Amino acid sequence: MQETQIKVLDRTLDQAITEKINGKTKPLGSLGQLETVGAQICRIQHTLQPKLEEPAILVCAGDHGITQEGISPFPQEVTFQMVMNFLAGGAAINVFSRQHNINLLVADTGVNFDFESTPQLLNKKVAKGTRNFAVEPAMSIDQCKQAMQNGADMVTKLHQEGTNIIGFGEMGIGNTTSAAALLCKYAGVQPEQACGAGTGLDQKGIQHKAEVIEKALKLHQAITSPLEILACFGGFETATICGAMLKAAELKMIIMVDGFIVTSALLAAHAMQPQILDYCIFTHQSNEQGHQHMLSFLRVNALLNIGMRLGEGTGAAVAYPLIQSAVAFINEMSSFADAGVSNR
Ligand SMILES: Cc1cc2ncn([C@H]3O[C@H](COP(=O)(O)O)[C@@H](O)[C@H]3O)c2cc1C
Ligand SMILES: O=C(O)c1cccnc1
């Protein structure tokens, strides 16, 4: 993975941005988080006329050795079956991306299946699934770096094609366990707080998942560097998304952060380069309980909290119109002076 260097945002336009927003025909602050997001996009793009161009969502799929521990109610083959569903256009993320004209890309980052080669599926397979982190690190450092580089390459290409806003999605049976372990390591949260139902575990299942993580944390307690943590507990899709996010921020793209799994990839990226947060819009708060711990650790608020807990990038897709509204009001709304409306 080539080193990325994310710039801390230039804040010299901050006062002009605030004045522009406060000059609009509305009571101060009355557009709430749309104002915060609009200002953030102005800052990222260093302009008072922000633009969203060629929005994209990149869904990364990968399989997880940790499924051997019985931590998901669904069998591993659902990962490749859902990839087929993405390619056929029938998954939730297909529907919402079509609805909002978002360019949807799907990558095999490490699925345990031999797909027929098709231009619709980006082949970024590092291996056919990670190893079981209850026994050994999920991937080697080289594999982790390879996945991160693959993510960076895909983002670079999209950037060259004109994309300036990107969301990430994932598919990988077992990946809520991996994400929970990453949450424990990066944020110091306890397994019971980090674990949730995932695709639908009952209370006993959640307890078992927490125990699996607790044992794995003990086994790998010597591991402390951000990259080693990602390699030990992450998935190929998570590592790919981590590298992709780092590159997106370096290229000054807007990053739409989805739910629990995608935020676990961001925890890794944040541990490597904390300034990445300036480029992130948190689209929704997942109902997977650990997600609230991730958001509090990062000290951020999400735009939506509507009980979603699917992944695939669906939170990013459904929140995209709100981001469009944030940009539209900044560009199109009249000021008190233009409209002849009396200000206080
Ligand atoms: C049909 C189906 C579609 C999905 N789309 C996303 N996920 C989500 O659930 C999985 C993680 O949950 P766990 O850790 O409990 O296995 C991931 O693949 C995630 O993207 C799905 C899960 C299923 C079953
Ligand atoms: O919030 C998520 O990303 C999520 C939650 C449960 C299952 N899969 C994904």
Automatic annotation (TrEMBL):
<dbReference type="InterPro" id="IPR003200">
    <property type="entry name" value="Nict_dMeBzImd_PRibTrfase"/>
</dbReference>
<comment type="function">
    <text>Catalyzes the synthesis of alpha-ribazole-5'-phosphate from nicotinate mononucleotide (NAMN) and 5,6-dimethylbenzimidazole (DMB).</text>
</comment>
<keyword id="KW-0169">Cobalamin biosynthesis</keyword>
<feature type="active site" description="Proton acceptor">
    <location>
        <position position="312"/>
    </location>
</feature>
<dbReference type="Pfam" id="PF02277">
    <property type="entry name" value="DBI_PRT"/>
</dbReference>
<protein>
    <recommendedName>
        <fullName>Nicotinate-nucleotide--dimethylbenzimidazole phosphoribosyltransferase</fullName>
        <ecNumber>2.4.2.21</ecNumber>
    </recommendedName>
</protein>
<dbReference type="InterPro" id="IPR036087">
    <property type="entry name" value="Nict_dMeBzImd_PRibTrfase_sf"/>
</dbReference>
<dbReference type="InterPro" id="IPR023195">
    <property type="entry name" value="Nict_dMeBzImd_PRibTrfase_N"/>
</dbReference>
<keyword id="KW-0328">Glycosyltransferase</keyword>
<dbReference type="InterPro" id="IPR017846">
    <property type="entry name" value="Nict_dMeBzImd_PRibTrfase_bact"/>
</dbReference>
<comment type="pathway">
    <text>Nucleoside biosynthesis; alpha-ribazole biosynthesis; alpha-ribazole from 5,6-dimethylbenzimidazole: step 1/2.</text>
</comment>
<comment type="similarity">
    <text>Belongs to the CobT family.</text>
</comment>
<dbReference type="GO" id="GO:0008939">
    <property type="term" value="F:nicotinate-nucleotide-dimethylbenzimidazole phosphoribosyltransferase activity"/>
</dbReference>
<keyword id="KW-0808">Transferase</keyword>
